[in-house]
Design brief:
Blueprint (H helix, E strand, L loop, with lengths): L11 E2 L17 H8 L16 H17 L3 E5 L13 H12 L4 E7 L2 H7 L9 E6 L3 H12 L5 E6 L15 H9 L10 E5 L11 H14 L3 E7 L8 E2 L5 E3 L6 E3 L2 E2 L2 E2 L14 H14 L4 E3 L5 E3 L1 H43 L1 H79 L4 H7 L2 H15 L1
Parallel strand pairs: 1-2, 2-3, 3-4, 4-5, 5-6, 6-7
Antiparallel strand pairs: 7-10, 8-11, 9-10, 11-12, 13-14
């Protein structure tokens, strides 16, 4: 409830009141109700009392904000760990309004408003546009609650919309709800404009007596979906399997809570990797501190206090003195903040200088590595040249063998052409002899035979026909 917290995803917790009542399966083993009962409370019934706090409690976030501003960082505040800010009761409205005002006064704190009632959140959300320091989240302990609560959550204007899948009592897929390019492209394919999506996912096992175990594959599904969509994923806690080869293990930055079979590992390693990612939120522009100081000093000069004499003879200071003192103190505060910023800048410069020195010391080793790289490149170039030479030799050898075979093939083709021509001539001569023989058979007398077979001409034809036949 104060500055320190064991919750891995925040720096502080703040509760505007204590008390709530159970509305869904994720509430079955509510740690807050158990703790309230342990300390003698009776604040977990629908119409029961709620425990409220005084000004000292409400001033804690103001102090946290100053400390965050002085350190130049932002702090995350979980609201509320012992209540639901959006419990729909009218007697809580005045405390909610005080909370909204407190949030507006603490710009260096990121307020994580987590609820199981996003429908009420949608009605009671006080900001018309997304404030720079408010994240809106809802619990999605199983797929039914995820599907039912997502639209109401995403309808409120916030810089971060997050899902707390804790306690994870069933498999949950958030693929259709995750922000990012894939969601926008899918909506565009359906003819829908871009819509808000989840920009952060937390998952964790149920804790306490009777806790319902989560399966490792349920964590893997959320991890893989977030990785594909580019959405940060944080695995808050898981049951310690207490086995060396288990997919859930301890590692750097994680720790064990409890003992025995139900012990938890906070920020566990899943398949050898710790998942503790947070969304990146643009920081609102801050005023120029020098301009603030100048304005304060100018106003102080115009409000120089003038004393006056009271009836009793004492010297009094008017309202101007109070104004001047206020401006003086304010300017001093700004100057102190500037000095602290200067000290932080000096520390950063010192760290950068140390890094430069380390880089210089590493320069010889870097130079040796560069030379080795160049030598490797030279060897690669030599090998490539050798490969090209061998390729050319192979091409030349293949060309010579191919040339000889082509010449023999051309000679064979010429010989075939010659034989085909001789064969054609022989066929022509035989045809003439056959025609002559048919003509001789067709004559009736010896004289006609002699007339047809004119001595030398016939002999020449017979000789030619005989030679062609042979």
């Amino acid at each position: 409830m104060g500055k320190s917290t064991g919750i891995a995803w925040c720096d502080h917790t703040f509760n505007p009141w204590w008390g709530c009542f159970k509305i869904s399966p994720g509430c079955k083993h509510c740690y807050a109700a158990t703790f309230d009962k342990r300390v003698g409370g009776d604040n977990w019934t629908p119409d029961g009392p709620r425990r409220f706090f005084g000004d000292k409690h409400w001033n804690d976030p103001i102090r946290w904000d100053r400390e965050a501003a002085a350190a130049g960082v932002r702090r995350r505040v979980f609201c509320a760990s012992m209540a639901d800010v959006f419990e729909d009761r009218r007697d809580l409205d005045e405390h909610r309004h005080r909370l909204w005002a407190l949030i507006d006064k603490t710009p260096h704190l990121d307020w994580l408003l987590l609820t199981k009632r996003p429908d009420v959140m949608r009605r009671l959300w006080p900001w018309p546009t997304a404030p720079k320091n408010v994240w809106a989240g809802t619990t999605m302990e199983d797929q039914e609650r995820a599907d039912a609560r997502a639209d109401d959550l995403l309808s409120v204007p916030a810089v971060v919309h997050f899902a707390s899948v804790e306690p994870m009592i069933g498999p949950v897929s958030l693929w259709a709800m995750l922000a990012g390019k894939l969601r926008d492209e899918s909506l565009a394919a359906l003819g829908s404009p871009p819509l808000p999506g989840l920009t952060w996912v937390i998952a964790g096992a149920e804790s306490g007596h009777g806790a319902r175990p989560a399966q490792v594959d349920w964590y893997r599904t959320l991890r893989d979906e977030c990785a594909a969509a580019g959405v940060p994923f944080l695995l808050k806690q898981a049951i310690d399997p207490q086995a060396a080869d288990a997919p859930i293990t301890l590692g750097a930055g994680s720790w064990r809570k409890g003992k025995g079979a139900g012990a938890l590992i906070e920020l566990p390693y899943l398949d050898g990797v710790k998942h503790a990612a947070f969304p990146e939120v643009p920081v609102a522009d801050q005023p120029d501190p020098l301009a603030t100081v100048r304005a304060a000093l100018d106003l102080a000069a115009k409000a120089t206090p003038e004393p006056w004499a009271a009836e009793d003879g004492s010297t009094k200071w008017g309202d101007d003195y109070d104004l001047w003192s206020m401006i003086r103190d304010g300017a001093g505060s700004v100057i102190c903040d500037m000095l602290e910023s200067g000290r932080r800048a000096h520390r950063q410069i010192s760290a950068d200088a140390a890094a430069i020195v380390a880089l210089r010391n590493a320069a010889p080793a870097i130079a040796d590595l560069c030379r080795e790289v160049e030598a490797g490149r030279s060897r690669i170039a030599t090998a490539e040249s050798r490969i090209a030479s061998i390729g050319a030799e192979i091409d030349r050898t293949l060309g010579e063998h191919a040339g000889g075979r082509i010449s023999a093939l051309e000679a064979g083709r010429d010989r075939i052409a010659t034989l085909e021509a001789e064969l054609a001539r022989a066929r022509s001569t035989l045809k003439e002899a056959a025609d002559l023989f048919i003509a001789i058979q067709a004559t009736d007398g010896e004289e006609e035979h002699r007339a047809i077979c004119d001595g030398a001409a016939l002999a020449a034809k017979i000789d030619a026909a005989t030679g062609a036949k042979e």
